[in-house]
Amino acid sequence: QVQLVESGGGLVQTGGSLKLSCAASGRALSTYGMGWFRQAPGKEREFVAAINSRGTATIYADSVKGRFTISRDNAKNTLYLQMNSLKPEDTAVYYCAAGTYGLFKSSYNYWGQGTHVTVSS
Questions:
Q1: Shortest CA distance to 49 belongs to which of 84, 1, 11?
Q2: Cα separation of 93 and 44, whole Å?
């Protein structure tokens, strides 16, 4: 069992930066692939980024490639998403997930409750 809690969301201006964190409890994250997904109002939850258990491989959605960086600190049992050059279309609730490294929702067994990111235009 893994419990995940996201933090760091908020309001930011277009072009600004924000760093999200996902803290895990219950079990260590070191054996899990991790991912970030986001969901805007009226839209499906979509893949953002993923990182394997050791932090040696990553995948990014085309929409965030070059702007977002996923990372992890297994010693702190925490996953991060550094978001730079933010755009209004990045506005969404962001969810972290633990499971198997991949870009599909079905790859992940555990999900946080989400943190809301709003990028002003």
A1: 84
A2: 11
C-alpha distances (whole Å) from 44 to each of 14, 22, 40, 98 are 23, 21, 7, 19
* pLDDT computed for residue 18 by the predictor: 98
Q: What's the pLDDT at 51?
A: 98
The confidence score (pLDDT) of residue 75 equals: 92
CA distance 87 to 109: 29
Q: What is the DSSP string of 22-42?
A: EEEESS-GGG-EEEEEEE-TT
Give the separation between CA 23 and CA 33, rounded to whole angstroms: 14
Q: List, in sequence order, the alpha helices (H) in the chain.
A: none
Model pLDDT for residues 47-62, shown as the tens digit of each residue:
999 999 999 999 999 9
Q: How far apart (Å, rounded) are the C-alpha atoms in residues 51 and 56?
A: 7
pLDDT of residue 46: 97
Residue with tokens 């839209």: 43
The distance of Cα 47 from the centroid of its chain, to the nearest Å, equals 9
pLDDT at 26: 85
